[in-house]
Specification:
73 residues, Arc Repressor Mutant, subunit A, 2 helices, 27% helix
């Protein structure tokens, strides 16, 4: 079964993830490359920024996000 971007399941089991990591999960499931700004715009109302960052990768630390709780997306 093919799912469209907007009806894919929530991945709350992933915990705190960067938007890049979350986009990679969606791209694997949808089997297509998503445009970064469009992905961020669509996912913005479904996730919330945490006060944590991902470090140790040699670049600026990435902000971590999690799915909003108790809200149907």
């Amino acid at each position: 079964m093919k799912c469209k971007f907007y009806d894919c399941p929530k991945f709350s089991f992933l915990g705190n993830v960067s938007l890049e990591e979350l986009q990679q999960v969606y791209e694997v499931i949808l089997n297509k490359k998503l445009i970064d700004p469009a992905f961020r715009r669509i996912i913005a109302n479904k996730v919330e920024k945490t006060n944590k960052v991902k470090t140790g990768e040699g670049h600026r630390p990435s902000a971590l996000f999690r799915y909003k709780k108790g809200k149907k997306n």
